[in-house]
Every structure is written in structure tokens, then in C-alpha cells.
Design goal:
about 20% helix, Ig-like_fold, 6 helices, transmembrane, membrane, Immunoglobulin-like, alpha+beta, 5 domains, transmembrane helix, six-stranded mixed beta sheet
């Protein structure tokens, strides 16, 4: 009797913990079911016990009190998912008027993703370098979404050095040319093997370059009856389209809008007459830039012409090459021709021993084969019937003379000159500077050597004079050292300065011998 009362008391005490103890067995109901489910899908909940004493009642409950199903056997309950299906589910088991509750299962209702679009800011996505932009991945329907991004068909990994991600937004703080291209996003309901995804249409991002300052230049052509200036207004970089305006003496005379970085204008000119000053303007929707100004004047070639020769030296001061320049008084569009020992060199032709570049001729090395007389002649390039203006011949030859130059410059090999002239930006000044060398180093080395010899010689003489153990044998050496010292200074110092030193040194010599 006492044992029965004890068992009854224990069952009452354990009732608040939702565990039923019957005939010595512990009843633990277990509820299984999905944690996520798509809207309008069907899912199944199952409530069961590891041991099933009877009689038992199984209930499937949503929330606190909504009973969805009751059965005398373990429940397998199918549920049609709707928007109200999301929540917490329990299984309650009743035996002999006592109950026990299972573990909870929380069900999330997932709305399948649909209608994904990519929205740029600014829109349209046309920006200039240095500006920022955002891309938002928006879905007309869908919950529990994750986002993937693609740039030029390549997935953008997170974290990315070029982009920032926050929720459904991709951000670029300072756009560069590499950020341009096609973007799209993919929104996805991640549910294991039952995931669903929707992709946006691609959006093109255009990153424009700011316009550089325009540069103005012109060439000349003859149409059979008159001369015209072909005027070029050109940008080094920028993004088209660009609107170009031509100004003559401050007044606009022509306008062009082109999808290039250069525009050409034509203006009539008269040779020898100043037609005025021209400039151009390049502009887009945010910039307006003014070019340099030039005189629209074609000056014919006038003489006299003469050849300037400058020898170029290596680091050891040996002559390495020669630079010849053909100089004229004036001329806007000259053409130059060079002659060697009376024979004309082909225009713009180069060889292993010389390089031509307009008015400059460089002898890359001087040898008996290219030593001789050089001259140049010049005429107008736009008029093949114009007369040549010829210079006097100058002699270029080998020389053994070593010239000490005091200017400071960097030494280059002669072969570097070929590279300089092949570059479109080469100038005569650059070529000359490339071959200048300095002899300050040579002078410094000679002086240091002389000073070192004098210090060593003086130290030797002093050591011989103060050694008492070799007085008899040192007499000759003192006299010899003294004489050598005097001989050195006899050539280096005036006689009036030298004599007092001789007497002083002789006095010291006599004191040592006593």
C-alpha cells in the first residue's frame, strides 16, 4: 500500500515537467517536421513516442491552444502551408488524465522569389571617374532571400576589393574604368535541394573619363587653287561624345559634335599673311575647356641656313658622336635634306652610322668612313616648286683631343640615341643633354692622389728624423728626404714663399743631428 502511494506522489510531482511516468516508464513525446516550407506547399508533422502504453491521446497544437489534429495513435499530420501557417508547433500526449508536451518545431513560411530587377542609382548608370554608384537587387515577391552579384558575367566574391555589399545593395564608392560593364543580380530562396532563384536583366554601367585640355595644331594643303589650313583640336583622353568649337580672333567660326577625341576644321590661308589667332573649345555636359592659341600664319622658308656641330662625349671624355643641326632664319613648314661630301642622303633614311630626324642629323660614332664635309638645304614642304636654301659645308672629323667639361649631366651610351629619335617626343635638347659628361670627378681623384703622396712622404721623413737608434745611418736619409721635400715645393710655390721653409727645415735638421 505504501509503495502505491509513493508512485502516485512521484507522478504528481513530475507532471509540471510534461513527462508522464506510468508503470515505471518515462513517456517522452517527440515532434518532427520541417523548419521552412514554401507557400502553398504541403508538409507533414509527425508526433510519436519511443514507448506507447495505452490508453493515449495525441494532439498536434499550433501556438498555445490551436489544436490541429487529435488521434489515439501517433499522429502523422499533413499541413497545407499558407501565410498563417508560420509559427510554433507542439505535440501533446495525454494518458490517464495526465499530459506531456513534446519539443517545439518552428515553421517559417517562405514565399518563392519572383520578378527580380536591378535598380541603379544614379539611373541611367552613367557616371564619371571618382563618383560612386549603388545597385539594388529588388524582388516583386519573395522572403528569406540571399543575393549573388555578377560583373561582366563573373561572380563577384564577398568580400571584394572593388565593391561593398549590404543586404540587397552593391555599392562602389569611387568608380574607375574597371568598374564599368554589365551587372546583374540573382535572388534565391536557400532551402537545400529545394532552392528557388530568379535573375535580373543586366544593367550596363558606363564610367566616363574627364576631358583633358585640348591641343591645337594645323597643317597646310593645296586644293589646286588655294591654300587651306587643316586645324586639329585634339584631346589626349576623355569620353566622347565631345562638342568642339573653333574660335578665330575670339569669335566662333565652326562647331562639330563627334564621337571621337579629335575634330578637324578647315580655314583658308594666304602664305606670308597673318590670318589671326585661333583657339578651340572642347566641352561635354559637365566640362568646357579652352585650348592653347596659335597664330594662323604660314611663313615661307627664308635663309640663310647654316649647320651647327656639337660633339658628344662618353664618360671618359672621348668623342662618342656628333650632333648636327640645320638652322634657318624662319619657316613654318620646312623640309630638310642632308648631304655628305656632295652626295645627298635619302630623306628620313637611317643607317648604323647616322640617324636623321627632320633638322637634326646624328653621327652615332665617328670613324674615317663618315668623317668629311656635311651640309643641309631647306625648302617649303607644301610647295615642291620652292627654291632650296643651302648651307655652307662643315667639316666633321675624328679628334684625339680630350675636352674637360664642367657641366653636370648623366652619361648614356650612344645606342640610347636611337631610342630617343624613334620616340615622337624626342627633342634636340634631350639628345644633347644625354651625351654631356663631367670631369670634376677626374680632377678630384688627381688632387686626392697628390695629397695622399704628400702625407705619406712627410710622415716618412718625420719618422726617420725622430728615431735615435739609427742616427748614423739616418743622416743620409734625412738629407735625401729634405731635398725631395724641397724639390716638390720648388715647383708648387713661389720662390719668396719657399725660402723661409727651407731655412726652417734645415734648422730642425741640425738639431736632430746634435
Amino acid at each position: 500500500m505504501s509503495e502505491s502511494l509513493l508512485l502516485l506522489l512521484m507522478s504528481v510531482l513530475l507532471l509540471p515537467g510534461h513527462v508522464i511516468i506510468t508503470d515505471g516508464a518515462t513517456l517522452r513525446p517527440e515532434l518532427t517536421g520541417p523548419s521552412m516550407a514554401f507557400l502553398k506547399s504541403t508538409v507533414t508533422f509527425e508526433c510519436k513516442l519511443s514507448e506507447s502504453p495505452s490508453p493515449l491521446t495525441f494532439e498536434l497544437i499550433k501556438g498555445n491552444d490551436e489544436v490541429l489534429a487529435i488521434n489515439d495513435n501517433p499522429i502523422t499530420f499533413p499541413l497545407k502551408v499558407n501565410k498563417g501557417s508560420e509559427g510554433e508547433y507542439f505535440c501533446r500526449v495525454t494518458a490517464r488524465n495526465q499530459t506531456s508536451t513534446s519539443n517545439p518545431v518552428y515553421l517559417q513560411v517562405v514565399i518563392p522569389v519572383q520578378g527580380v530587377s536591378l535598380v541603379p542609382e544614379p539611373n541611367p548608370a552613367v557616371i564619371y571617374e571618382g563618383a560612386g554608384f549603388n545597385m539594388s537587387c529588388e524582388a516583386s515577391k519573395g522572403t528569406h532571400l540571399t543575393y549573388s552579384w555578377y560583373h561582366n558575367k563573373q561572380k563577384v566574391m564577398s568580400p571584394s576589393p572593388l565593391h561593398h555589399f549590404a543586404g540587397n545593395t552593391l555599392t562602389v564608392d569611387r568608380a574607375a574604368e574597371r568598374h564599368a560593364g554589365s551587372y546583374l543580380c540573382v535572388a534565391e530562396n536557400m532551402m537545400g535541394n529545394n532552392s528557388r532563384a530568379s535573375s535580373s536583366r543586366p544593367v550596363t554601367v558606363v564610367v566616363k573619363k574627364y576631358l583633358s585640355a585640348p591641343r591645337l595644331s594645323f597643317t597646310l594643303f593645296y586644293n589646286g587653287s588655294s591654300y587651306y589650313a587643316n586645324i586639329s583640336c585634339r584631346l589626349a583622353y576623355g569620353s566622347p561624345p565631345v562638342t568642339f568649337q573653333l574660335l578665330l580672333n575670339g569669335k566662333r567660326v565652326d562647331v562639330q559634335q563627334v564621337d571621337f577625341l579629335e575634330a578637324w576644321f578647315s580655314q583658308p590661308v594666304t602664305v606670308g599673311l597673318d590670318m589671326g589667332r585661333v583657339q578651340c573649345i572642347a566641352e561635354n555636359n559637365i566640362q568646357q575647356l579652352l585650348s592653347n592659341s596659335i597664330d594662323l600664319e604660314v611663313v615661307p622658308v627664308t635663309g640663310p641656313a647654316h649647320v651647327q656641330v656639337e660633339y658628344l662625349y662618353r664618360a671618359d671624355s672621348a668623342v662618342a658622336a656628333a650632333l648636327l643641326q640645320c638652322v634657318i632664319t624662319m619657316g613654318t613648314f620646312p623640309i630638310f635634306s642632308w648631304s655628305f661630301n656632295g652626295s645627298t642622303l635619302p630623306l628620313e633614311a637611317n643607317s648604323p652610322t647616322f640617324i636623321q630626324h627632320e633638322q637634326v642629323l646624328v653621327l652615332t660614332h665617328i670613324s674615317p668612313g663618315n668623317s668629311g664635309y656635311y651640309s643641309c638645304r631647306v625648302r617649303d614642304s607644301f610647295n615642291s616648286n620652292s627654291s632650296w636654301v643651302e648651307s655652307e659645308e662643315v667639316l666633321v672629323k675624328m679628334t684625339d683631343l680630350t675636352i674637360f667639361r664642367t657641366s653636370t649631366a648623366t652619361t648614356y651610351e650612344v645606342a640610347d640615341l636611337t631610342t630617343s629619335f624613334n620616340s615622337a617626343s624626342s627633342t634636340t635638347t634631350d639628345v644633347v643633354a644625354a651625351f654631356e659628361v663631367t670631369q670634376i670627378e677626374v680632377t678630384a681623384v688627381v688632387f686626392c692622389c697628390f695629397l695622399f703622396v704628400m702625407i705619406v712622404g712627410g710622415a716618412g721623413c718625420l719618422f726617420q728624423n725622430i728615431n735615435p737608434e739609427r742616427e748614423t745611418t739616418d743622416n743620409y736619409h734625412h738629407g735625401h728626404c729634405h731635398e725631395h721635400f724641397n724639390t716638390e715645393y720648388h715647383h708648387a710655390m713661389p720662390e719668396t714663399v719657399f725660402e723661409p721653409h727651407v731655412e726652417e727645415m734645415e734648422t730642425v735638421f741640425m738639431e736632430v743631428e746634435v
